[in-house]
């Protein structure tokens, strides 16, 4: 990406844009300024993640050790969002890792945030407002929110095999589990997950990738598992129509890796949410959803090894699905509130209009 700077400059000289939206190209603000173009650092991940790791307070004090990253930076809007030892260790490693033209990730982020003309986020104030504003105040930049860009109603139909299988169960009774296109659980964790699904006693559909070194999900299943769950459970290794699956009335619970796209899809549907983050921004997303917004329950992991067990998967699912539990009452009420907000027909257009107005104001 960094090697494209010269090509981008030639392109800008030809197109003569008024404003450019960029993410991690740290050279973009200076290039844009040189050509009289405004630059907006636009983040399609969560603002809470950027504000936790890349705040000016953390950068000035160079607080990127494992111990530093376990705690939020000075002035951070939530003291409840924290990292475990293992998570902070991983964050610390990535933060000081060199990317592209031999520049540390944190330095790249700092240049993007400090040299741009404005900060843009694919979110809304109702979900992440305090975190976006915190980052804006830290760097002295106007903050522009485009809204979460809710997936539009698809015109396609669910594959017949899934429609038939899902249709064989009662409404709100099935667990759907999907951990994204990039997650390959190790075999032991893969087995703990599917055994946890079995332990719930509920029907389930798990869309997972095979563990590293294995060619199929079937080869990773515990001995006797397929026979025990026959008729009520499916572990599938191919691509699946997630948006349509989540919209099906039989889906009652969604175990997600907490990618921003999956969380948006979860919030606009009626399924209860279980949070099973795997890496980086997903972890902070899970804390936001589980601790701050209280719309889901995160699966417990070991403090040092980060492993989850079949029992912890079972516990999280039962916590959101047991209608008589206090936790379920809270998350269901909060989820319903955000769902109503996000599906309001005027919600998304109002954010898009405000975003455009702020872009125009930036040019004056």
TrEMBL record:
Q: Which domain of life is it from?
A: Eukaryota
Q: Does the keyword Disulfide bond apply?
A: no
List the SUPFAM superfamilies.
UDP-Glycosyltransferase/glycogen phosphorylase
Do you know which InterPro entries this protein is assigned to?
UDP-glycosyltransf_plant, UDP_glucos_trans, UDP_glycos_trans_CS
The signal peptide stretch is: none
Gene3D superfamilies this protein is in?
A: Glycogen Phosphorylase B
Give the GO molecular function terms: UDP-glucosyltransferase activity
Q: Which UniProt keywords apply?
A: Glycosyltransferase, Transferase
Pfam families, per database record:
UDPGT
Record-stated family: Belongs to the UDP-glycosyltransferase family.
Protein name, as recorded: UGTPg34
- From which organism does this entry originate? Tripterygium wilfordii
Instruction: List the taxonomic lineage.
Output: Eukaryota, Viridiplantae, Streptophyta, Embryophyta, Tracheophyta
């Amino acid at each position: 990406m960094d090697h494209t700077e010269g090509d981008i400059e030639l392109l800008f000289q030809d197109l003569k844009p008024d404003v450019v939206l960029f993410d991690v190209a740290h050279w973009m603000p200076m290039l844009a300024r040189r050509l009289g173009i405004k630059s907006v650092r636009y983040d399609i991940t969560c603002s809470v993640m950027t504000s936790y790791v890349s705040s000016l307070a953390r950068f000035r004090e160079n607080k990127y050790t494992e111990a530093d990253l376990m705690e939020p930076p000075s002035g951070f809007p939530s003291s409840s969002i924290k990292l475990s030892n293992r998570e902070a260790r991983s964050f610390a490693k990535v933060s000081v890792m060199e990317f592209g033209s031999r520049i540390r990730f944190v330095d790249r982020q700092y240049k993007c945030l400090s040299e741009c003309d404005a900060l843009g986020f694919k979110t809304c104030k109702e979900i992440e407002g305090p975190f976006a504003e915190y980052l804006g105040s830290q760097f002295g930049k106007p903050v522009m929110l485009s809204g979460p860009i809710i997936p539009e109603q698809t015109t396609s139909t669910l594959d017949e095999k899934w429609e038939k299988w899902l249709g064989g169960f009662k409404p709100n009774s099935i667990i759907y589990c999907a951990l994204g296109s990039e997650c390959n659980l190790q075999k032991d964790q893969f087995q703990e997950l599917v055994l946890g699904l079995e332990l719930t006693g509920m029907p389930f559909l798990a869309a997972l990738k095979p563990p590293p070194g294995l060619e199929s999900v079937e080869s990773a299943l515990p001995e006797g598992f397929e026979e025990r769950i026959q008729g009520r459970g499916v572990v599938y290794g191919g691509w699946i129509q997630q948006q349509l699956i989540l919209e099906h009335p039989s889906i009652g619970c969604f175990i997600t890796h907490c990618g921003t796209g999956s969380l948006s899809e979860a919030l606009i549907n009626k399924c209860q949410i279980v949070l099973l983050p795997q890496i980086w921004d997903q972890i902070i997303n899970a804390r936001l959803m589980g601790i701050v917004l209280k719309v889901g329950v995160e699966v417990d992991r070991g403090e040092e090894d980060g492993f989850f067990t079949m029992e912890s998967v079972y516990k999280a699912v039962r916590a959101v699905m047991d209608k008589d539990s206090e936790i379920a009452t809270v998350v269901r009420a909060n989820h319903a509130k955000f769902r109503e907000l996000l599906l309001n027909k005027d919600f998304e257009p109002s954010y898009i209009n405000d975003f455009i107005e702020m872009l125009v104001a930036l040019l004056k």
